[in-house]
């Protein structure tokens, strides 16, 4: 059953009889009509997706914002000086990369098993109404913005917030924990809020894959005496393996891409040592400190590594499980 | 499957239900907490948090938020951009997907190539910032509209998967009767693909309503702020009321009086205003998201299964 692969990446070659035999649609009028339907999107892709690629030249040049757009092309080449500067004498590079990888990889290591477990448990619930109630409720945070969801948790995790209030009442702690002001809690806060926001919605893909598993397998296994747990282990999990693989590919290929919208909301000057990630750093150096060239260089390097990771993870997954994105 | 026969099964079932209920409480409680806190008197909250029900019920904070002109302007900008971009981008994207799905489209690989490249290759933040400047979109309302009018190739793929569920015979007979491509698209394809149109419209609307990056990156004037951005600033300043007072002389007199009367620790405090703003801003999404859920299953998942 190839549903999950389809969801993640749907364009699949189908062996459907083509209209070619009729020669319908190959006339000029039809082709012009089709072109006119394609043109708006093509223009937007070229203008807003491809034109900025010229801006990547800034990473290799001595560009100053005062030069304007023309400067992207006329500024002098500088022999990778920006890239050298990033690696040499950059005290912010290591913490930034560590935070990015740490939050993403630990986050994936926590959220993938938790989401899978949630989906497995939800799948075992017999009452359809209770099941859809759980789904509806757990989908809610996915549709709230990070400003609101993050804002809620900032309020809850405040020193005078409800979490500290409860922990104090239960005598688990003596004085309030500085969840957002103390750097040592930031990864936990980021990973925890990320998990809670998307656990319900993330399960939707696994549940769809589970619905696609042949039900007669369960019946046969039940007759052969396999208990609930064994059926889960030997039927459900192999059935959703392709989905799981796709999720892992996404996690690996996205490990350099932090969720800027999340981190930026939770970030403050006190937790910066553990909350500064590549994306927030690019924003800060580029748009706040106007170091366009070095911000572009960092962004470019990140994109290149991310693309390599994506292809690498995909190839590996294809070798091991015969499932991949493309 | 018949079940619940032995004790083990029952225990497992009970455990599962307990986990689900716990998760639902963890999801809903923060939201409930912010609703009751925003409806409680701020001064009273200083004595300690409310847990289940407001102690001193008051609409003051909600009124303060809803009567702030800056807030209302932000709502206007956010709502208008959400409606415009969702409508136009759905039409452009679905139309592109339709033309792209036709087997007789010439040079299809060209469109596939630019589509896939646009998905995986990005210039990044600074080059985009330069582009917005160059196009004169920086710090104008148009920066919210123009760059978002194409919904992305990802959505094209989802549309495409759905179009495959429409019988070929329909297209063939329409074509033979001489129907134009536009007619086929608007009169056959669109009505037959309502769930996916609904699902992707809702996703697009949610994404735009919740976006604050565009404001953060590409605007600077206070009158172009979106709702999420205003709330973000409220949270960040952590002194919500003072912040609203500093947004200018256009401050609502009633709010000012309200605050002055109580010296800043009356029914309206920084915390309650912040929470009220968050609750109000999430209301549209709470209304919309059950539809997304319904149509996501019907439109996006079903379409992709048909493949």
Q: What are the segments of chain A in which pLDDT stays under 50 over at least 5 consecutive residues?
A: 1-13
Domain module tally of chain A: 1
**Euclidean distance between termini CA atoms of chain A:** 17 Å
Name the biggest interface. A-B, 107 and 111 residues
The assigned CATH architecture of chain B is Orthogonal Bundle
The percent range for strand residues of chain B is under 5%
Distinct helical segment count of chain B: 16
Multimer state: heterodimer
- Derived from helix and strand composition plus strand pairing, the structural class of chain A reads mainly alpha
Report how far apart the termini of chain B are.
29 Å
* Rg of Cα set of chain B: 25 Å
Q: What would your notes on this structure say?
A:
The complex is a heterodimer of chains A (326) and B (307). Chain A has one domain (80-321): MetI-like (MetI-like fold), CATH 1.10.3720.10. Chain A is built from 15 helices and no strands. Chain A has helices at residues 3-8, 28-50, 71-74, 81-87, 93-123, 128-143, 146-157, 162-169, 186-211, 215-223, 228-253, 260-266, 272-275, 278-288, 292-321. Chain B is an all-alpha fold. Chain B has one domain (59-307): MetI-like (MetI-like fold), CATH 1.10.3720.10. Chain B is 73% helix and 0% strand. Chain B has 16 helices and no strands. Chain B has helices at 7-38, 42-45, 60-66, 69-101, 108-120, 125-134, 142-145, 153-163, 168-176, 181-192, 194-210, 213-218, 227-237, 240-246, 253-262, 270-306. In chain B, helix 4 (69-101) crosses helix 8 and helix 13 crosses helix 16. The longest helix of chain B has 37 residues, at 270-306. Chain B is globular, with a radius of gyration of 25 Å. Residues 239-263 and 303-307 of chain B have low confidence and may be disordered. At the A-B interface, helix 1, helix 2, helix 5, helix 6 and helix 7 of A face helix 1, helix 4, helix 5, helix 6 and helix 8 of B.
């Amino acid at each position: 059953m190839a549903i999950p692969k389809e969801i993640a990446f749907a364009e699949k070659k189908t062996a459907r009889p083509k209209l070619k035999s009729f020669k319908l649609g190959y006339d000029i009028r039809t082709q012009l009509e089709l072109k006119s339907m394609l043109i708006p999107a093509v223009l937007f892709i070229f203008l807003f997706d491809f034109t900025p690629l010229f801006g990547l030249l800034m990473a290799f040049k001595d560009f100053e914002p005062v030069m304007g757009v023309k400067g992207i092309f006329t500024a002098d080449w500088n022999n990778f000086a920006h890239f050298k500067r990033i690696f040499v004498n950059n005290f912010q590079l290591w913490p930034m990369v560590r935070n990015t990888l740490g939050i993403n990889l630990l986050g994936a290591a926590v959220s993938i098993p938790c989401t899978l477990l949630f989906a497995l448990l939800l799948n075992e619930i017999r009452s359809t109404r209770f099941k859809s109630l759980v789904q509806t409720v757990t989908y809610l945070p996915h549709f709230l913005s990070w400003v609101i969801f993050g804002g809620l948790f900032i309020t809850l995790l405040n020193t005078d917030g409800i979490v500290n209030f409860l922990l104090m009442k239960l005598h688990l702690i003596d004085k309030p924990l500085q969840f957002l002001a103390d750097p040592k809690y930031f990864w936990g806060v980021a990973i925890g809020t990320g998990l809670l926001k998307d656990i319900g919605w993330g399960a939707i893909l696994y549940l769809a894959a589970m619905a696609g598993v042949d039900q007669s397998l369960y019946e046969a296994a039940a007759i052969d005496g396999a208990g609930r747990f064994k059926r889960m282990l030997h039927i459900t999990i192999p059935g959703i393996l392709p989905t799981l693989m796709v999720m892992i590919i996404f996690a690996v290929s996205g490990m350099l891409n932090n969720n800027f919208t999340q981190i930026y909301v939770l970030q403050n000057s006190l937790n910066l040592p553990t909350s500064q990630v590549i994306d927030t750093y690019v924003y800060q150096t580029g748009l706040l400190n106007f170091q366009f060239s070095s911000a572009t260089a960092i962004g470019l390097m990140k994109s290149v590594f991310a693309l390599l990771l994506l292809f690498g993870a995909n190839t590996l997954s294809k070798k091991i499980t015969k499932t991949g994105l493309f | 499957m018949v079940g619940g026969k032995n004790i083990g099964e029952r225990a497992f079932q009970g455990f599962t239900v307990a986990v689900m209920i716990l998760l639902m409480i963890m999801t809903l409680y923060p939201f409930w907490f912010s609703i009751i806190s925003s409806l409680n008197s701020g001064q009273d909250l200083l004595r300690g948090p409310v847990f289940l029900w407001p102690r001193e019920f008051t609409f003051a904070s909600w009124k303060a938020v809803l009567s702030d002109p800056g807030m209302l302007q932000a709502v206007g900008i956010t709502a208008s951009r959400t409606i415009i971009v969702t409508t136009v981008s759905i039409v452009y994207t679905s139309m592109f997907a339709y033309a792209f799905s036709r087997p007789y489209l010439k040079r299809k690989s060209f469109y596939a190539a630019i589509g896939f490249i646009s998905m995986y290759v990005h210039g990044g933040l600074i080059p985009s910032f330069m582009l917005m400047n160059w196009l004169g979109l920086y710090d104008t309302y148009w920066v919210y509209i123009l760059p978002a009018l194409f919904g992305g190739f990802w959505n094209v793929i989802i549309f495409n998967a759905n179009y495959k569920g429409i019988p070929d015979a329909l297209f063939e007979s329409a074509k033979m009767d001489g129907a134009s491509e536009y007619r086929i698209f608007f009169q056959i394809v669109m009505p037959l693909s309502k769930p996916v149109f609904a699902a992707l419209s809702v996703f697009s609307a949610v994404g735009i309503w919740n976006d604050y990056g565009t404001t953060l990156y590409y605007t600077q004037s206070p009158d172009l702020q979106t709702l999420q951005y205003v709330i973000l600033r409220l949270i960040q300043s952590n002194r919500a009321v003072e912040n609203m007072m500093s947004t200018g002389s256009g401050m609502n007199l009633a709010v000012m009086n309200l605050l002055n009367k109580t010296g800043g620790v009356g029914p309206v405090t920084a915390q309650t205003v912040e929470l009220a703003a968050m609750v109000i801003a999430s209301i549209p999404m709470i209304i919309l998201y059950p539809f997304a859920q319904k149509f996501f299953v019907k439109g996006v998942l079903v379409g992709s299964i048909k493949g």
